């Protein structure tokens, strides 16, 4: 059974804005999938539907065979603008990932049991922010805030981790760092992970499997060995990709995820 | 477009000048008609300086020996303001969520929230106090309830506007963790409005300290009872002492309020 099964997913905004058009795919447990496409191609809508923050117009989403219709702690979401609570500390933000397991009193007074508190500290350590646990989130850099967002997601103990353009607002150095933390968290915890990106080089470096969207339609679904310049052309259309694909990386399949056991698969 | 030398540039065209003149004439006519309707007699204005001087002479020196008798009423005044404000803040939080477009469940609840805010704000504290003195009898309890009820609208309105300004992305992020609606409010909304909540509450407490000083005029407790008793008995030196005491606690509350609001900004 696939961990994620998306079947004929369609999302129409208003009367005629088709954000997703009959998209179907399956993702196995522990896969690290990158969703690519230009702005408006449907990447964010796809991830928002998967996390139930947006309701699809048609189609179904199943996680481990169960249809997903509302937000759930099994599915963690990391956002482009971090969306952490600036007025709270990094630790409190991380701990908020345990809310679905907390009762009324625990929520109000932050009296979660020691296992949850340890989990929050461990998650902050995973993203290299244990020393910053008591820092106000709003005083942290963009990269650090995104790492707090990852920690919050990890405290959820999800089966699926989704990240919607997690590095879009970060500088190149912070982008690499955040992607590395996402990859390590995914590998260490065997999380099924989907990340939307529009930076092809970053995608090629960290990606194992790629799903390409264009105008809401799935135009590619395959593994790194099939992710060629022609495929990138198909995803990005008329956009000049010379500037967004590094020449020395364009024809290589060497990736960060290649260092872990490569799964079989074929392009569709 | 080049600037032509010698061309007469004007800030307003003819239509704007007529409109501005009409507004000025309307404003002047409003003030004049109000003055005429009130039929104000200016003869007392002319005699007011000697009257004021006479009052000042009668008030001086203040009756310092009366000071021990106003300590408890002063403390009661502050307590009326503190408890009334706390009551108002607690009750105004749900009202604010109802009166904010982005958190109210539906149009009916929005209307209910706005109605509570409007009713509370449109009736003066003294009038609320008169009603509650009839309901609960004279004393500090009626004054405290009056202060609280009057403040619900003030705090609820400002807090509701603050809720409408929150970043909804943060709320959505907490929702995405699988948290309940209450937990989403607690972690997604409350931290964002907390600085405003503290600032508004302290500011309202400051207003309520001033408001509580005159509740005594309708028998609703506080230092106002002593003040109006002294006025009725023409004990002007005692009145002077009470006014100095009121000035003292108002200055104290304003200082505390300003510092507390600066801390949470």
TrEMBL record, chain A:
UniProt keyword annotation of Mitochondrion present: no
GO molecular function, one term: ABC-type phosphonate transporter activity
Keyword Translocase (UniProt): yes
Listed InterPro entries: AAA+_ATPase, ABC_transporter-like_ATP-bd, ABC_transporter-like_CS, ABC_transpr_PhnC, MetN_ABC_transporter-like, P-loop_NTPase
Residue ranges occupied by any ABC transporter domain in the UniProt entry: 4-240
SUPFAM superfamilies: P-loop containing nucleoside triphosphate hydrolases (SSF52540)
Keywords: ATP-binding, Cell membrane, Membrane, Nucleotide-binding, Translocase, Transport
Annotated PROSITE patterns: ABC_TRANSPORTER_1, ABC_TRANSPORTER_2
GO annotation, cellular component aspect: membrane
SMART domains: AAA
Record NCBIfam families: ABC_phnC
PANTHER family in UniProt: AMINO ACID IMPORT ATP-BINDING PROTEIN (PTHR43166), PHOSPHONATES IMPORT ATP-BINDING PROTEIN PHNC (PTHR43166:SF6)
Protein name: Phosphonate ABC transporter ATP-binding protein
Species assigned in the record: Salinadaptatus halalkaliphilus
Phylogenetic lineage: Archaea, Methanobacteriati, Methanobacteriota, Stenosarchaea group, Halobacteria
UniProtKB/TrEMBL annotation, chain B:
UniProt topology in membrane: Multi-pass membrane protein
InterPro entries (alphabetical): MetI-like, MetI-like_sf, PhnE/PtxC
Transmembrane among keywords: yes
Domain ABC transmembrane type-1 positions: 74-257
Localization per record: Cell membrane
Key words of the record: Cell membrane, Membrane, Transmembrane, Transmembrane helix, Transport
Parts of the chain that traverse the membrane: 21-38, 78-100, 126-149, 233-253
GO molecular function: ABC-type phosphonate transporter activity
NCBIfam families xref list: PhnE (TIGR01097)
Family that this chain belongs to: Belongs to the binding-protein-dependent transport system permease family.
Name listed for the protein in its UniProt record: Phosphonate ABC transporter, permease protein PhnE
Organism: Salinadaptatus halalkaliphilus
Lineage of the species this protein comes from: Archaea, Methanobacteriati, Methanobacteriota, Stenosarchaea group, Halobacteria
Gene designation per UniProt: phnE
């Amino acid at each position: 059974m696939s961990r994620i099964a998306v079947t004929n997913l369609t999302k129409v905004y208003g009367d005629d804005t088709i954000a997703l058009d009959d998209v179907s795919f399956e993702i196995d447990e522990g896969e690290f999938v990158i969703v690519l496409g230009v702005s408006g191609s449907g990447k964010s809508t796809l991830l928002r539907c998967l996390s139930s923050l947006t309701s699809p117009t048609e189609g179904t989403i199943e996680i481990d065979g169960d249809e997903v219709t509302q937000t759930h702690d099994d599915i963690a979401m990391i956002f482009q603008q971090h969306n952490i609570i600036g007025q709270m500390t990094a630790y409190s933000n991380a701990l908020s990932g345990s809310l679905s397991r907390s009762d009324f009193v625990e929520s109000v007074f932050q009296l979660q049991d020691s296992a949850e508190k340890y989990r929050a500290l461990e998650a902050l350590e995973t993203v290299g922010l244990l020393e910053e646990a008591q820092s106000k989130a709003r005083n942290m850099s963009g990269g650090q805030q995104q790492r707090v967002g990852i920690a919050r997601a990890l405290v959820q103990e999800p089966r699926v981790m989704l990240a919607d353009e997690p590095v879009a607002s970060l500088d190149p150095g912070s982008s690499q760092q955040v992607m590395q933390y996402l990859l390590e968290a995914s590998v260490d915890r065997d999380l099924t992970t989907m990340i939307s990106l529009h930076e092809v080089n970053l995608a090629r470096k960290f990606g194992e499997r790629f799903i390409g969207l264009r105008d809401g339609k799935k135009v590619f679904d395959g593994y790194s060995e099939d992710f060629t310049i022609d495929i990138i052309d198909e995803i990005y259309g008329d956009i000049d990709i010379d500037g967004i694909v590094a020449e020395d990386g364009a024809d290589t399949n060497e990736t960060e995820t290649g260092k872990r056991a490569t799964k079989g698969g074929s392009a569709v | 477009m080049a600037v032509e030398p010698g061309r007469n540039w004007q800030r307003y065209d003819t239509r704007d000048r007529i409109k501005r003149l009409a507004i000025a004439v309307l404003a002047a006519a409003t003030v004049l008609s109000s003055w005429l309707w009130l039929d104000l007699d200016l003869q007392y204005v002319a005699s007011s300086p000697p009257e004021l001087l006479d009052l000042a002479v009668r008030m001086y020196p203040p009756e310092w020996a009366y000071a021990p008798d106003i300590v408890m009423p002063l403390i009661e005044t502050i307590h009326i303001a503190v408890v009334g404000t706390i009551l108002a803040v607690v009750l105004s939080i749900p009202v604010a969520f109802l009166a904010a477009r982005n958190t109210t469940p539906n149009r009916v609840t929005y209307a209910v929230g706005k109605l509570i805010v409007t009713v509370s704000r449109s009736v003066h504290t003294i009038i609320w106090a008169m009603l509650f003195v009839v309901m609960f009898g004279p004393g500090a309890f009626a004054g405290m309830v009056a202060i609280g009820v009057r403040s619900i609208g003030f705090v609820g309105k400002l807090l509701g506007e603050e809720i409408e300004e929150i970043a909804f992305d943060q709320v959505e992020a907490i929702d995405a963790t699988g948290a309940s609606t209450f937990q989403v409010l607690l972690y997604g909304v409350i931290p964002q409005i907390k600085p405003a909540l503290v600032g508004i509450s302290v500011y309202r407490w400051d207003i309520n300290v001033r408001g509580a000083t005159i509740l005594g005029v309708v028998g609703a407790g506080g230092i106002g009872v002593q003040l109006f008793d002294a006025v009725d008995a023409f004990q002007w030196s005692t009145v002077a002492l009470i006014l100095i005491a009121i000035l003292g606690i108002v200055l104290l509350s304003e200082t505390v309020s300003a510092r507390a609001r600066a801390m949470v900004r």
